[in-house]
Automatic annotation (TrEMBL):
GO biological process: negative regulation of apoptotic process; positive regulation of canonical Wnt signaling pathway; positive regulation of protein ubiquitination; regulation of cell cycle
Cellular component annotations (GO), alphabetically ordered: cytoplasm; nucleus
The organism of origin for this protein: Dimorphilus gyrociliatus
InterPro entries assigned: BIR_rpt, IAP
Range of residues in the leader sequence: none
Protein name in UniProt: DgyrCDS3635
Length: 191
């Protein structure tokens, strides 16, 4: 079963890559063919089938290959590319392939370490995320932020959504309130 059935349709996935999508070196058709859709936050993408979330794309990346590296058991991927293809992109010890440092040597791409490779996500489950968001919204500092958020042009719902998205895709909280506010604003600018 697809985790995100509303993007089962190739056209839907393709349409999600609007002109706002920041990666121009990889064609939208290639993303969509490889199962990915844009969630309309920066370059965050998700496979409609397995739900793996990847970001940090390089213009030289191949979505199929990144898909294989980060979600080797995706049935959609297996059906389209076959087991052999997927195997060829697993690091030697297959147990650890879900690490974020999976750029293998057969790729020539160099990138700064803080930006290392497409980051796989989905380490927190939905309950953990909800709990974390709930806790975070009750911090005294957050309450102060909430009191001012209408001035900033954002709502509590946007802040919650920004945090959820961040935790879901990056498995990581925001480093600062500024970052959080910015992410919420980005969300509010989405159509
Ligand atoms: Zn997948």
């Amino acid at each position: 079963m697809a985790r995100y059935p509303s993007f089962e349709d190739y056209r839907k996935r393709l349409e999600s890559f609007t002109s706002q999508f920041p990666i121009t070196g990889i064609s939208s058709t290639l993303f969509a063919e490889a199962g990915f859709y844009s969630i309309a936050v920066q370059d965050y993408t998700r496979c409609f089938y397995c739900g793996v979330g990847l970001r940090g794309w390089d213009n030289t990346d191949d979505p199929w290959i990144q898909h294989a590296k980060f979600s080797s058991s995706c049935q959609f991927l297996i059906e389209k590319k076959g087991i052999e293809f997927i195997r060829s992109y697993q690091p030697g010890n297959s147990a650890g392939f879900r690490s974020t440092e999976t750029r293998t040597t057969n790729e020539k791409t160099e990138r700064p370490s803080e930006n290392d490779s497409a980051t796989t996500i989905r380490k927190l489950n939905d309950n953990e995320i909800r709990l974390h968001v709930k806790m975070r919204m009750e911090y005294p500092k957050t309450r102060m932020l909430l009191e001012n958020c209408s001035e900033l042009g954002i709502s509590q719902a946007l802040l919650e959504k920004a945090l959820e998205t961040r935790l879901d895709l990056q498995n990581d909280d925001f480093e600062s309130f500024e970052d959080w506010i910015e992410a919420a604003k980005n969300l509010s600018n989405q159509p």
